[in-house]
Amino acid sequence: MLLPEDFGLSAIQTLAHVGRTAPSWRHGAFWNAWDKAVAGIAPGIRPITAASTDNTDPTASHQFESLRHVRIGALLVEPPHGTPVRAGVVAMHGDGRIGPLAGERERWEWLASRGVATLAIRVRGFPGSALDTGCVSDAPAGWICHGLEALIAAEDAPPSTQVTMWIVPEAIADVVNAARALARWMGGGQPVYLHGESLGGGLAVLAAARTARQGTFARLAIGHPTLGDWLWRLQQKGAIAAGTGSHIRELFANHQEHAEKFVDSLLLADSVVHATSVCIPTLCKLAHRDDVVPAPSAAAVYNALACAPGEKWRFITPYGHFDGGIRNARRHAIFDRAVDAFLDPSRPAHEGIGPFMDVLETGDRAPDDPARGEPGARRTQEAAQPSLFGGGAKPEAPAADPIAPSAGATEDGQLSLERILCQAYKLAGRTLDDLPYTPQFEEIMAAARGNFPDLSDREAFHKLHNIRKAGRLPRLGRSPGTKPAVPPDDERLLTELIQSTVGTTGQRDQLPYTPAFDRMVWEFNQRTGRSLAPHELWRLVATLSK
Fold first, then answer.
1. CA dist., res. 205 & res. 198, Å (int)
2. Is the four-CA dihedral 182, 186, 192, 195 of positive or negative sign?
3. What is the largest CA-CA distance in the chain?
4. What are the residue boundaries of the structural domains of the chain, listed by start?
5. Under a CB-based contact definition with an 8 Å cutoff, are residues 283 and 351 in contact?
6. Are 181 and 78 in contact (CB under 8 A)?
7. CA dihedral angle for residue 356, residue 362, residue 365, residue 371, rounded to 10 degrees
8. Which residue, among 533, 537, 443, has the nearest Cα to 490 in the 3D structure?
9. Cα dihedral 64/184/275/166 (nearest 10)
10. What is the predicted pLDDT for the residue at 451?
């Protein structure tokens, strides 16, 4: 399996990446003209009639008017009859082939039950919003390049003319006008939230920035936001797999004679530049690896946000626009649940995200959420079970392994977890102390999840330790890993971090595959100026004297 490009960066370096925030020299005049153009529109949501149906997506239920009188298609998901409207969400889409608007209803039904009206939109040029522009999303040069060359050539034209040349600033107007139309429809001063992933995430940041002074949006939920860090992206030698970046790279290759003008025009709508104006509570999904929306560029958008430290949350997935298997799919599914909790108007943003704090960086199971009618009993029972890694109340008698306590086969003939882990461990050929955060551990997990799909990384690592303590783990040769060379001061700092996290270095086996260890990696690298990957830091931890 060919993994997405990592751009020569470790996971920590990827998430810490920052981009250029200096704006284009045209920024002020351009966006002042844009503000005036958008302020001259009074959008209102109206049901689609037979005469106004857009055949590129006939499932749209409503329309509103945006910049240049372009009709924008949408689906309005209303709260059930008798449920008061407490908030609204403008929901956007990604690039490329997108599904019909009718598919948005199921996604937003739970929030509708909480009194949230969702307006799922398609920005101009996409199916459902092509009546006045044509369908630009399937153009050979890509949606994002529509009008960009005209903007580059017209840098001396009046700003009022420039704002209607490139499709990206016009799409930002579509998002802002959707929020204005939805607020008008709700009619009572309810807050409006904003959601988008990929292209939608980039547009969401840009729309939130452009309306920051007006306070149009109250919360922002985004995933793998694009349209940012263009200067860095254009400097990368490797090809971008697909999406907006690949189209921009292709166009840039034909404009080398005026590269500076090209970059300057892109900076007008660079989401990293604009993120410095966004200071509303934000939940953002990022990836360790992604080459459609390059993972470092998405992280740069998040890192540029001006939110207070306690009002922005980073949710991590192994991969972004890549089928990374069931573990990756689960992370994306947990994020959707976190978005629902974060956008629930019955709770402040920090309370909504509260149940998910322990799974923001790792984890295969969504936490129970009382707002969904889940009492949390399962989590409470699990927390009470004894564990090699501490915590929980001690039962009167030893608890049986809930998955498979013995080697061999279970009653239904299925291989036990212990036997699968032992076989996979022997094939992996990497000793247990050297195993965490390696491809060999992923191979073991892939083998185990064939029979135990709900098994988490942390549970598997615990199980392997229990098997070794019982003397049943296969013996392997010398570990292939090596200890990173660090000075004594760094080792003393690491010892302090371990002790502050789990009490003593003797309890260090509690750390792998926990948010606490992820935080330790980050803090160690921050305080030492290093960029050790999780496996490298674990090798250092494992060699410390107990």
1. 11
2. negative
3. 80
4. 11-372, 488-542
5. no
6. no
7. 10
8. 537
9. 20
10. 82
pTM above 0.85, yes or no: no
Higher pLDDT, 401 or 530: 530
How confident is the model over 28-56, as pLDDT tens digits? 999 999 999 999 999 999 999 988 899 99
pLDDT of residue 143: 93
Q: 187 by DSSP, 3-state: which?
A: coil
CA 87 from centre of chain: 23
3-class DSSP assignment, residue 232? helix
Percentages (nearest 5) of helix, strand, coil residues in the chain: 45, 10, 45
| pLDDT classification of 407: cutoffs 50, 70, 90 | very low
Residue 128 corresponds to which tokens in the numbers above?
């459902």
Give the confidence band of 273 by pLDDT, cuts at 50, 70, 90.
very high
Query: Can you name the CATH fold of 11-372?
Result: Rossmann fold (3.40.50)
Residue from 376, 350, 37 nearest 174 by CA: 37
Single-letter code of the amino acid located at 28 = G
Q: Counting runs of H as helices and runs of E as strands, what totals does the chain give?
A: 21, 9
Ordered DSSP codes for 10-44:
-HHHHHT-----PPPTTHHHHHHHHHHHHHT----
| 321: CB partners within 8 A, 6+ apart | 4, 198, 224, 241, 242, 243, 290, 291, 292, 293
Please state, in angstroms and rounded to a whole number, the distance separating the CA atoms of residues 203 and 226.
Answer: 8
